[in-house]
What does this fold into?
Amino acid sequence: MRAVVLDRYGPAELLTVASRSVPEPLPTEIRVKVAAAGVNPVDWKTREGAGMAKVLGHPPVVLGWDVAGVVESVGPGVTRFAIGDRVFGMPWFPRQAGAYAEYVTAPSRHFARTPRELSDVEAAGLPLAGLTAWQALVDVAQVRPGQRVLVHAAAGGVGHLAVQIALSRGAHVIGTASSSKHRLLGGLGLHEAVNYRGTSFEHVVEPVDVVLDLIGGEVAMRSLEVLRPGGLLISLPSGSAADAIAEAPRRGLRATGMLVEPDGDGLEELADLVRTHRLRVLVEETFTLERVAEAHRLGERGATTGKLVLVV
Ligand SMILES: NC(=O)c1ccc[n+]([C@@H]2O[C@H](COP(=O)([O-])OP(=O)(O)OC[C@H]3O[C@@H](n4cnc5c(N)ncnc54)[C@H](OP(=O)(O)O)[C@@H]3O)[C@@H](O)[C@H]2O)c1
It folds into this structure.
């Protein structure tokens, strides 16, 4: 099979298409013929030797965790899927999944059926970003109707899904984004958009119950100023928010980092939101496997609206 192989950690031009043997599914696993693979910030962070590079270990490695495709082979013991089923998922994270390839094998419970409403490209943009938003807002924050939620980087991969998930829980949702993206966010149902470039959000946002911070660093620290007493800051990337997380309890607030986990049940919840027209996946651009370096370079600029996806 064709796969994008990284022989050493470093710049995007090291990503090269090479030949690899097709993986065999073990008991409880399925083999998926990959139609599309999502590209996430953790991919380029890992490529550079940060991100999950320590988990993946010495190269060669195959990057990518977001998979959408068709079940091509079923290992012994699998009851949930049959050959030919369309599935999507974020298998194995943070271990190597090798989604930038024609085939992936993984435990069946790391996948869910792709809703008819989603193309393979859209489905490939959903798992990692969608599960991050779901696990943060629903599992950790337990957002309830009437609560006020602030999402930083609301137009990005995680952000645009987080906005819709928070809305589906009945929250009043505020998001930060460049002004050129406010119309699009309004179309998703966002209640208030803040142009973080022209305005200090902490000066204009009324107190909120939850902040989902997808920027970290000083944005995490400034986010403490907009929380109600007892309010919760969830900051990803978590490492850069250590100071804010330590400071929160001193101010009567709660703060935590988080790392997304494979979650078949969470995928089913996301699929249900899609089927009931409460969740849309926005894809800014698609790339062939040969153009993967371009996708990484574009993503690294940090200005993506929605998702970048590889068509396999
Ligand atoms: N811990 C975990 O489990 C986990 C999981 C997923 C993601 N993450 C992390 O979360 C972060 C976001 O991921 P992502 O996939 O959403 O990234 P992304 O799609 O690349 O985010 C791009 C968006 O960020 C916005 N942005 C950049 N700087 C901003 C700022 N200062 N304020 C507000 N918006 C800003 C951009 O909007 P403008 O063009 O308007 O600037 C753009 O729309 C990454 O660092 C990623 O590694 C962590």
Q: What stands out?
A: The radius of gyration is 19 Å.
